[in-house]
Input
Amino acid sequence: MKKAGRLLANLLLVAFSCIWLAPIYIIFVNSFKNRAELYANILSFPSTFTGEYYAQAMQKMNFAEAFKNSFIVTVFSVVIIVVLSAMTAWMLVRSHTRLSRFLYRFLIVTMLIPFQTVMMPLMQEMNSITKATGIQMKDSLGGLVFMYIGFGAGMGVFLFHGFIKSAVPISLEEAATIDGCNTWQVFWKVVFPLLKPTAITVAILDVIWIWNDYLLPSLTLTSNAHKTIPVMASLFFGTYTIQWNMAMAALMLTVIPVVVFYFAAQKYIIKGVAAGAVKG
Amino acid sequence: MKIKKKWFALFTVPLISVFFAVVILPFISGVMYSFVKWDGLPKNAKQFVGFANYLKVFTDSRFLASLLRTSLFTIIAMLVINVLALAFALLVTSRLRARNLSRAMLFMPYLIGGLLLGYIWQFILGDGMKAIGALTGREDLFFYWLSDSRFAFIGMIVVTTWQMAGYIMIIYIAGLQTISDDVLEAARIDGAGFWNLLFRVKLPLLMPSITISLFLTLSNCFKIYDVNLSLTGGGPANATEMVTMNIFAEIFSKSNYGYGQAKAIVFFVIVAAITMLQVKLTSNKEVEA
Output
């Protein structure tokens, strides 16, 4: 009797989880249906699996290029944020000066500033930089990476700072110094390898944020060849919402990379998100 | 360990200078922009107007309405998300074998960005609802939600909940795992049932997690933009326009750069004030185990 009850509870839990993900199922099945079939029953399984709408959506959304842009921006931003904020956080922990305490507090407090408060002046500033130096800041992937580094600094430093303070023993660093390492070598040979768990947490949180971010790239990227997936998706939905089957294929295309990433790194993602939030 | 200035500079200057260029300088110049009248065109002069923009903000009925709506949305969404997330966390920390699978599935929507979630649900709450209505005959409840101002607002809450509940669940799971079995066992021996255990033991010990979760849902919901844009676009007839969308439109659609920036500064002050107040209020309730 108890066994049956447990089985039932398990089944109920799985059933509920499936219902929770029903929207994704609906998008999936309808991305293969023609108009008549779609409106006949939106919950039914498609009669045939055709790649037709996927091909159309891929072409209309410029998917390959958008994917490449999203990938480049995410990878470069995340790697640079992880490296620079680990370096900065370590220095801020180890040097006990008034400046380092001030910088740390300042980085944390300014995390409260909403993006909407700085978006317009930021765009003006990027225009001025381009005018003064000739470096393309808007409508360039490099410029976008630059801005992500600035916005990601606060959280990165915060997470590394907490970890270094509580879990990285200073005695190892002192020993390495006595063995003749300079500060640069101490950091890279001794400290950075120990920071791996936090580096993974920061990387996961930043990947989720940057891959999905819409407003910043929509303000800076003006030519289609530079646009990231969310920006291309919004352009696509502004134009083709009536053709639902193609729209759903487009949605599936954008969701698939996320799902693949999730299955590949599920363990790290859930751990990273929990660690990041608990410290935040 | 003594660190030389040269090393301190080498390690910190790259990040700190980018951070100042991207966050701090725009913030300072943003405050200055809020005192001028300007249409955003470089050839046109910026005209200093003092506090006129700020005075106008507090008489702008559409802005005030969006602020009120955002507050209402935030309060409801915060409650729904946290209650649901806590229920999920209790379920998936039970000894059921399906817990890992469920946890993975419930968390997944968080990984899909707000913009795409909005587009997914635009179909579900539009044609999807209509189809369900036709199927079940309950067309009074299942109809094109997004064209009704009240149901579109509910739709915003539904989608935000779908996105955030799995994420907040992860935080509650982490919190539940720190409660020692001894404490729970002792309570059980003293005769505590499920509800007593939940309200008298687990919840008080979960206060740190509750603080974090409330903080995250509060700031995320109050700053919501992507879901608003892709799900309802502020419609029907501005009935679901949240404050971020109002600010964006003022600056970039109506080209009132100075006035829109004043709204953005007011928005910042509100966000800063409520998050600090909230952290202060809930951190007083934390107990030591």
Chain B touches chain A through 89 residues (CB under 8 Å).
